[in-house]
Amino acid sequence: MATSRSLDPTAEHVGVIARLSHKLHVPLHEVREIYGEQLERLAADARVQSFVSVLALRNTRDILRAEERRVAPSS
Length: 75
Prior knowledge:
75 residues; mainly alpha
């Protein structure tokens, strides 16, 4: 089984990762790692591969936003 470090993203994935990194102000490498993990996890169990990248993006965004809330100082 491949690891997220061996993820060889297509041009579609690279663009999605870059846009999410920019939008959430999170380093590209961090988004790439989480997205790769989610993509692999979802692809392993998916019967239909068509929406795996959409679900991986949503999961990645949710994870990063949850981390942001956890790290952000409370007012």
